[in-house]
Design a protein that fits this description.
This protein has helices at residues 7-10, 16-30, 50-62, 79-90, 108-114, 133-141, 196-208, 249-252, 275-286, 292-299, 304-330, 354-365, 391-404; strands at 37-38, 102-105, 125-129, 148-149, 154-155, 158-162, 180-184, 212-216, 242-247, 260-263, 269-270, 273-274, 335-337, 343-347, 367-368, 370-371, 382-386. It is 37% helix and 15% strand. It is globular, with a radius of gyration of 21 Å. Strands 2-10-9-8-7-3-6 form a seven-stranded mixed sheet, with helices on both faces. Strands 13-14-17-16 form a four-stranded antiparallel sheet, with helices on one face. It is an alpha/beta fold.
Length: 405
């Protein structure tokens, strides 16, 4: 008899954003006249920039001739994109990352979920709390999380590191030993960013304990404050302890196109094994590479025209973030994020539960948010709002929220 992976049975309920969609759809069906505004799931609304569209059109036209046609591409991505990434995302910041340390994929979510394939099941996992659900759920599926404690709303074998206003949104080094440490900066969901000094403590800890930092930098292009690291490899020692994930989804509007990349330096070795080589073996077994057409579009954001156009889109979303932050603060709410991130992290009023406040905003203001409890125990008492909506809709959502408060 074929047996299933029993770890799936341990997962609590549905995936966070699937549950939000379910509740939203149920409300909309019961109130078809309601005009909902979505500030919950972080999907973008602005179209692809002209440079990207032109590059993809060119790539499509190439497929019409024998000379230009592309079949299977390199598992790790085409050289033209990997070289552009190495030059503009790293060398431009004084960081030496070689093209063959870069693996192009269909997005950071996939890579964050799949990276566990190259690590043993017995590795001990530590995550920031609140946390992007994929980090936790993917390890639960692979058997590293233990059992789910319904009362605590946490997994028994995962170390949750509070990342809250009380500690300046910088988690303390874990008391229990950790082998795989997930860090995200700018952080999803809190919208806050780690300093170089804060990251250096983590890099030193990882090197001292032969641990691996899994560093999610999907939102680094939203950083506006001077001095904040855009990549963990700006920190001395990071190449021997860190894997970095990047995405074009929010920065260049590729949520539907699907493209991102992972960096694994050659210096990153454990038990005599190159993690770069292990990931290449994994990818060549389970992944056939991102589309040539999509990679041509991604490469276009590194041209002068594409970079300027993408910067304008990012600035548009950051203006939305400021509108949300300033509007909610004017309503008397405590708000974080929005400065170096498209996310706004808002404390619920008067100790209200996060799902209760989600329901209140949905039913009374017709605004969809994301309840903080869905991001882990420390997320309770908060909601996350995203800046990816249209400007007018964002302003209207803020006014609706202010009106019911």
């Amino acid at each position: 008899m074929a047996k299933i992976n029993e770890n799936f049975e341990k997962l609590p309920g549905s995936y966070l954003f699937a549950e939000i969609s379910r509740r939203t759809e149920a409300y909309q069906q019961a109130h078809p006249e309601a005009k909902l505004i979505k500030l919950g799931i972080g999907d973008v609304t602005q179209p692809l920039v002209p440079a990207v569209v032109a590059a993809m059109h060119e790539a499509v036209d190439e497929q019409a001739s024998a000379a230009g046609f592309k079949g299977y591409g390199p598992y790790e991505g085409y050289d033209f994109l990997r070289e552009a990434i190495a030059e503009h995302d790293f060398a431009a910041r004084g960081v030496d990352i070689a093209p063959d340390e870069i693996f192009v994929s269909d997005g950071a979510k996939s890579d964050c979920g799949n990276i566990g394939d190259i690590f043993a099941r017995e590795n001990r996992v530590a995550v920031c709390d609140p946390v992007y659900p994929v980090y936790v759920d993917s390890n639960a599926i692979e058997g590293r999380a233990g059992e789910y404690d319904v009362d605590a709303e946490a997994w028994t074998d995962i170390t949750y590191m509070p990342t809250t206003a009380e500690n300046g949104f910088c988690p303390a080094l874990p008391d229990a030993a950790a082998d795989l440490i997930y860090l995200c900066s700018p952080n999803n969901p809190t919208g806050t960013a780690l300093t170089a000094e804060q990251l250096k403590r983590w890099v030193d800890y990882a090197n001292d304990n032969d641990a691996i930092i899994l560093f999610d930098a999907a939102y680094e292009r939203f950083i506006t404050e001077e001095g904040l690291p855009h990549t963990i490899y700006e920190i001395p020692g990071a190449k021997t302890c860190a894997i970095e994930f990047r995405s074009f989804s929010k920065t260049a509007g590729f949520t539907g196109m699907r493209c991102g990349y992972t960096v694994i330096p050659h210096e990153l070795v454990r038990q005599g094994q190159s993690l770069n080589a292990l990931w290449m073996r994994r990818q060549s077994t389970k992944f056939n590479g991102a589309s040539y057409i999509i990679q041509k579009g991604a490469a276009a954001i590194y041209t002068p025209e594409g970079a300027a156009q993408v910067r304008a889109i990012i600035d548009f979303y950051l203006r939305n973030a400021r509108i949300i932050k300033e509007g909610l603060e004017a309503a008397g709410l405590t708000v974080y994020g929005a400065v170096n991130s498209p996310y706004v992290w808002c404390r619920t009023p008067e100790g209200m539960g996060s799902w209760d406040f989600f329901n209140k905003l949905l039913e009374e203001a017709n605004v969809i948010t994301t309840p903080g409890a869905g991001f882990g125990p420390a997320g309770e008492g908060y909601i996350r709002l995203t800046a990816f909506g249209e400007a007018e809709a964002t302003r209207e959502a803020v006014e609706r929220i202010k009106a019911i408060l």
